[in-house]
From TrEMBL:
Protein name: nicotinamidase
Pathway: Cofactor biosynthesis; nicotinate biosynthesis; nicotinate from nicotinamide: step 1/1
UniProt domain EF-hand: residue ranges: 17-52, 60-95
Organism the protein comes from: Amphibalanus amphitrite (Striped barnacle)
Organism domain of life: Eukaryota
Family of the protein in this entry: Belongs to the isochorismatase family.
GN (gene name): pncA_1
């Protein structure tokens, strides 16, 4: 029985339908046939569920296993009974096995590759154009449920442009004055009080610099999200402005399409990609960043942002894993843990 149930989620008939799959799953892991799952039986289920594409099991932390068990043991009697397992199956196991995945391609625009804010001229010295063939390869090889392209789309008088710094009132706490300000400085504006990193003018609406790189593959029926349109506030994320005062509508559009997972890539890792990934996590999407499909501004900040994504139970992986994660063939426990935590909040 143990050998059979360890391969349950790799069997072609194990979860053919939601109703039959749920019953078969409960029966397979209910080793003492008492109609419910103990912690140990749930652990066996998790060890069978959390496998990479080759079928190799992922290691599972005991504390996280106990936490996930408690999410579904809603009456806290030490077991997951059949009614509780129905929720576990429909809201947790099913999205793990059959994720609905959006591929969010962040700001792969001319200005960030060879224009006024090319990442090659930033401290990390990365070559932004290197993301294009990686992203194209992913698009060619993976069937995503939704593809999204985000665009920085600034008015010429945007608050982030160093050339406009004198046009906005400076707060007394700013360590850099308008007269001294230069690219990559951080100033503090007044009314409202906000920190702002200063950039050269870039991605101005309707300009060449704001266009997607010409070699980037653009999918039919993809969503396009334009951000940073308000002159008075920065907007790194494809979901919200930096103060979360206004939404781009992306979260709503993904939820309307029943998206469970978001895979993020693009430019720049430590700025707009990281902000998008963090907002995706906060919006309840299981989130993965494709490290080799991103390039960044500052090497130290890139590492910090990768750690921040991991701390919120997102993944940072190589693009070679994108297809298996998007299809539910690669099922890392961290994404399952993230989903369980979100279910506990609701």
């Amino acid at each position: 029985m143990a050998e059979d149930c360890s391969e349950f989620f790799n069997r072609s008939d194990g979860h053919a339908t939601l109703e039959n799959g749920m019953d078969a799953c409960l029966q397979a892991f209910d080793l003492d046939s008492d109609g419910k799952l103990s912690v140990d039986e749930f652990g066996a289920l998790c060890r069978a569920l959390f496998r990479d594409e080759t079928g190799a099991p992922y290691p599972l932390e005991i504390k996280k296993l106990a936490c996930m068990f408690s999410v579904f043991d809603t009456n806290q009697d030490g077991f997951i009974d059949s009614a509780e397992f129905q929720t576990c199956w429909s809201k947790w196991i099913t999205p793990i096995l059959r994720p609905i995945t959006a591929f969010v391609i962040v700001d792969v625009q001319n200005d960030f590759i060879s224009g006024s804010l090319a990442v090659c001229n930033c401290p990390a010295g990365h070559k932004g154009e290197e993301v294009v063939p990686v992203i194209n390869s992913v698009l060619d090889s993976v069937k995503f449920d939704v593809v999204v392209y985000s665009l920085d789309w600034h008015p010429s008088d945007h608050i982030s442009f160093v050339t406009n710094v004198a046009n906005f009132p400076m707060h007394s706490s700013s360590k850099v004055s308008a007269e001294e300000a230069k690219v990559l400085d951080t100033v503090v504006f007044d009314s409202p009080v906000r920190e702002q990193t200063l950039w050269p003018p870039h991605c101005i609406q309707e300009s060449w610099g704001a266009q997607l790189h010409p070699d980037l593959k653009v999918m039919d029926e993809a969503l396009t999200i334009k951000k940073g349109c308000n002159r008075e506030i920065e907007s790194y994320s494809a979901f919200f402005d930096n103060a979360r005062e206004s939404s781009t509508g992306l979260s709503e559009q993904l939820k309307q399409r029943f998206v469970t997972d978001v895979i993020v890539c693009g430019l720049a890792t430590d700025v707009c990609v990281a902000a998008t990934a963090m907002d995706a996590l906060s919006e309840g999407f299981r989130t993965t960043v494709l490290e080799d499909a991103c390039r960044g501004v500052n090497a130290e900040d890139i590492e910090k942002k990768k750690c921040a994504v991991a701390e919120q139970h997102g993944l940072v992986v190589d693009s070679a894993k994108a297809g298996a994660i998007a299809a539910g063939r690669d099922r890392p426990p961290e994404l399952a843990y993230k989903l369980a935590l979100d279910l506990a909040k609701n």
